[in-house]
Design a protein that fits this description.
By secondary structure, the chain is α+β, with helices and mostly antiparallel strands. Helices cover 67% and strands 9% of the residues. The longest helix has 55 residues, at 165-219.
């Protein structure tokens, strides 16, 4: 009886909130009528995009309320309402998510009265369930009915608020468009970095090397000692040029990934980071299947950038990195116990990290409250 009572009490709380939202939606009819009249009269057409945004917020609140009861998230799929008034009007009317939200709102006016049944049921529950359970030794009937009422209301809301395939496709296209733009920007920035490193580093050393070898040839007959010193300097320039080229190559695809694999490469990063770093691995083995090269490179750079930020900005001496194979791909998490407050606009490399991951259709989550800790979590989809 007690578990049933607790579940019924939870369902009652949810139904009370749903009743309050239903009452608010009835009041919202006035806004809808004003918007319809203003749009029809043209002079008030600016109200339409604002009303659509309000309906999105109401529908979003209902999605969260329903997800809290069912334990399953209801995705959102909207096109951003931005730009000129004409663009905002066009998006508001043509977005499939608008039809989904208004369809739910109209239906909610019909089934939103369900929570009103809850108070009478609670009044009947002590009498009916007391007699039913006490005299007939049967399970309670009113309290489970309240739970089923909450389930019914949640199932209808889930069905009505779930985005259509067209809306999901439109949202996917919008996301891919933004991802492609970020990938192009990241690729351009990477090319400029490589060009700068080659021009200022390896090329400068090679030019100096060529000059010293030429001077050594000229001085070889008349001053062998000077020629020997020039050749020694030329050897140093050659070594510096090789170092610069290795740096450029590591920026494109670290050779250590090919030699040691992702786990070995991350452990090498941890050893050379200057911090006390623990590396936790789940589902990845040296002799097991490997993720695609692009995914491994992105994961490597995420760990490298995060550990560099931790060493430079966090003030912490410890960090932790975790690599995990998931059902959908590769998960990377780097955590430091520093001061927190990481800011993407401050040039800490987080924006470049996002672009690199977005190019692979991955996601980046950064949690860095003031006082720490800073946690960077990356999900990279791939097929193993």
């Amino acid at each position: 009886m007690r578990p049933t009572l607790r579940q019924a009490a939870r369902a009652s709380g949810r139904l009370l909130v749903a009743a309050a939202m239903a009452f608010g939606s009835y009041l919202f009819i006035t806004v809808l009528l004003i918007t319809a009249v203003g749009t029809a009269a043209v002079v008030g057409c600016w109200l339409l995009p604002e009303t659509v945004l309000l309906v999105r917020r109401i529908a979003g609140a209902k999605r969260r309320l329903t997800a809290a009861w069912t334990g399953r998230d209801i995705p959102e799929a909207y096109r951003p309402i931005t730009g000129t008034l004409r663009e905002r009007l066009t998006t508001s009317v043509r977005d499939p998510g608008t039809l989904t939200d208004f369809r739910w709102l109209l239906a909610y006016y019909a089934y939103g009265w369900l929570p009103v049944l809850m108070p009478p049921l609670w009044l009947l529950a002590p009498v009916v369930d007391g007699v039913w359970c006490g005299l007939l030794r049967r399970e309670a009937v009113i309290l489970p009915l309240i739970v089923r009422l909450a389930d019914l209301e949640a199932s209808w809301s889930t069905a009505l608020l779930s985005p259509s395939p067209q809306a999901l496709l439109a949202a996917r296209v919008e996301r891919l468009t933004a991802t492609r733009a970020d990938a192009v920007a990241a690729h351009g920035a990477e090319l400029r970095r490589i060009e700068r490193d080659l021009h200022d580093g390896a090329q400068a050393h090679l030019v100096a090397l060529s000059l010293r070898i030429g001077l050594a040839q000229q001085a070889y007959e008349r001053d062998p000692d000077a020629a020997r010193k020039l050749l020694t300097d030329a050897q140093s320039q050659a070594e510096e040029a090789l170092t610069g080229l290795r740096h450029v190559v590591r920026g494109i695809h670290p050779p250590i990934l090919t030699d040691r694999g992702l786990v070995g490469a991350v452990r090498a990063l941890a050893a050379s980071s200057g911090l006390e770093v623990t590396v936790d691995v789940d589902g990845l083995t040296d002799d097991g299947p490997r993720a695609p090269a692009a995914v491994e490179a992105a994961a490597y750079f995420v760990v490298a950038e995060s550990l560099t930020n931790a060493a430079k900005h966090s003030g912490s001496e410890r960090a932790a990195a975790r690599l995990a194979r998931t059902g959908k791909g590769l998960s990377v998490c780097v955590r430091d116990e520093g001061r927190g407050g990481a800011d993407e606009a401050a040039g800490t490399g987080l924006l470049g990290m996002r672009r690199r991951v977005a190019a692979l259709d991955g996601t980046v989550r950064v949690s860095s409250p003031r006082g720490g800790p800073t946690v960077v979590t990356v999900e990279l989809p791939c097929v193993w």
